[in-house]
Design brief:
- There is one protein chain.
- The protein is of the alpha/beta class.
- The protein has four helices and six strands.
- The strands form two sheets. A four-stranded parallel β-sheet has the order 1-3-5-6. The chain has a two-stranded parallel ribbon with strand order 2-4.
């Protein structure tokens, strides 16, 4: 199985929150050889449009390095934001880490 790195951001997901862990995420991809990134949103209470835009840029960056990025444990407000913007067709979203791991192994 490709190397997986999981991140657990918390609080409000906006462009400032992305800046807090973007460097660690990129280091995982470039220096540590992670091929898959999982963002566990169980600790995220709210995401605004700036956060969504930053997430899209993060996805593009990760893909440019030949890596895949997944989301899990997204709350109802964030799920609705993804659906309204059709971003649910861009991001692979799983209900939980367990569901992601089952998918990854199958």
């Amino acid at each position: 199985m490709d190397q997986l790195k999981t991140f657990h951001p918390t609080g409000i997901f906006d462009n400032i929150k992305v800046l807090e862990f973007r460097d660690d995420l990129l280091k995982s991809v470039t220096d540590e050889g992670a091929k898959r990134i999982l963002l566990d949103f169980s600790g995220i209470t709210f995401m605004d449009s700036a956060g969504l835009g930053s997430l899209v840029l993060l996805l593009k960056t990760v893909r440019a390095h030949g890596c895949k990025m997944y989301l899990c444990s997204v709350n109802q407000q964030i799920k609705m934001l993804f659906e309204l913007t059709n971003m649910d067709s861009i991001f692979e979203i799983f209900s939980s880490q367990e569901e992601f791991l089952e998918h990854a192994q199958g």
